[in-house]
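If you are new to this repository, start here. Below is one unmodified record pulled from the training split, so you can see the exact layout before writing a loader.
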Amino acid sequence: MQNIGIIGCGKIAQKRHIPEYTDNPNANLLGFFDLNTARAELLAKVHGGIAYKSYQELLANEDIDAVSICTSNDSHAAITIAALLAGKHVLCEKPMATTLADCEAMVETAHRQGKALMIGHNQRLTRTHIKAKELIASGLIGEVVSFRTTFGHGGPETWSIDPGKNTWFFDKQKAVMGAMADLGIHKTDLIHFLTGQSIVETTARLSTLDKRGADGNLIGVDDNAFCIYKLEGGAVGTMAVSWTHYGAEDNSTVIYGSKGIMRIYDDPDYSIKVITDNEEEILYSIDKIQTNDSQTKSGVIDVFVDCLECKTEPEISGVDVLRSMRVVFASIESSNSGQSVQINHN
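And here is the target side for that same chain:
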């Protein structure tokens, strides 16, 4: 049995982490902390455990084995490192941290302390993405030649625990990065997962096109990001993410291979649709991907708890996620410089 502390009791904690811990027979919620003390107290009353007045007090509880960190982006690294030094295993929400140096420090601390560090990249855990990876690896569509992957919705202001234009997602100090880190990290990680290849070059443009804060001015972080990625095997494709898709969410990926095309979450009836080079269609109806309006079990908590119970490396470890964070930071550099950026994963 793993005793769990929740640090940050906002929407992601309330909609995913807490319900999934509650559903897991090997997890016990023991502590809660939020800057909004009343919010933590309410959750402790509902689920049992203690509401703490600081995350340091929570980490001082020796009975807590692991923590979920569900705070704003700017605090991920400091709280993660503090938790690891306190002897806790850590599940940290994405983006991992706001600088590459902080990401690397998190990984180094976890290694030194002998503790698990997992990052909440849920897209690679969907049954459809797992099946798609298997099909690509089997050679069904041949070698990957190109791809496009998209994640767009109307923005985080309706998702935030405190909805509206004052959401921390729009605050440059707390969020640091916008759609690229919020959504782009998911799709970057997914391309790594599906293809089994690393992205080695990015040409990117991050922009603030439409989102305005409560003051009426454009927000201080990007609301759209457009990237051209090159894989180590030579394939080139696009990754586009947006907070300004004011309609149905688009969370689709298309892989163009030398022997066919695979469309993933791109058809309302089939989660995978393969069209081979001889025009044969192969259809899979496996599941529907999560949307902000339709939450389903992510699987992240079960993977995290299982790795603690079995004393194995997390499936989505900080070491693995470093690859994708390097691409995010390189894309920001590319956008700022107006030039392509090579990515060294060694």
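Two things worth knowing about this chain: The mean pLDDT is 95. DSSP finds ten helices and 15 strands in the chain.
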